[in-house]
């Protein structure tokens, strides 16, 4: 039997799953294809006994370690398979908080935003002591507390915008910049002061909330003054603008995450590499001008956009973009990841049953 040496790139915690090695391609290969490849490599009598092959050979046994198998599937990009496994797990064990949390993550990866948040909500009800589910649902509730979605009106009276088309076509493939400030300089100063005061009291700015592209930030929902300001701004100013520009119903816009970001030229984070966001729509609001450099670079536009204080930049979350380096001073922005409520999609009841949301005449376009 061939041997391989596994070299860890970081220390492995005792509770982590042991590392595994695949001798044949696994991501998109069926059970039969993998078995044939293994027999060709190791002989006609070879039979794989790994957990995934055993699970698939039994036709999807609920008794299998479904959460571990789902994690492997997600790493391979097999989100539909992971979702099916996790649904089976939460149906068999409705209080498995890890399975509910991972189910929401798998649905989010499939861009099923509403279903993801509903899964987290159902899991938090059934596994009330699960820390991550509780934290996620408290964040969700904070952005609904002032009726961000329900109070948002239509597109009438939305601020005019400068529009930059992106590759791909369609109403959402663009970047919009408000032609006039949505927020006064005094509002922006108060937002920065609230974030700095919170960071000073709580031990500093967070740097590890976003795994792929971390930012130095303060979560909006953790600062009461910031949260009140942001929720009212979403309902009264931001949602109508987005509704007009991206052809969605203002009342269907939901907040996935919002945070106040700090870029510093003299230490800490000075820029953000090219990336896409975990959102349907993203936005930034410029909060100060005491810096040089900076701005948001959009790969499709081959240029950076850096509007004055109080202006908003909004764009499709899949647009490739990054934060240009600042060369002096400190730059502050508010960034938000948004999604659009999906009507008539599958929802999760606490008892594990499925239901259909009633249509109310609105159309949500992704």
Automatic annotation (TrEMBL):
| Molecular functions per Gene Ontology | dioxygenase activity; iron ion binding; L-ascorbic acid binding; oxidoreductase activity, acting on paired donors, with incorporation or reduction of molecular oxygen
User: Start and end of every Fe2OG dioxygenase domain?
Assistant: 254-340
Q: Which InterPro entries does this entry report, sorted A to Z?
A: Oxoglu/Fe-dep_dioxygenase_dom, Pro_4_hyd_alph, TPR-like_helical_dom_sf
- Tell me the cofactors it needs: L-ascorbate
Alphabetic keyword roster: Dioxygenase, Endoplasmic reticulum, Glycoprotein, Iron, Metal-binding, Oxidoreductase
SMART domains assigned to the protein according to its UniProt record, in alphabetical order? P4Hc
**Listed Gene3D superfamilies:** q2cbj1_9rhob like domain, Tetratricopeptide repeat domain
What is this protein called in UniProt? Fe2OG dioxygenase domain-containing protein
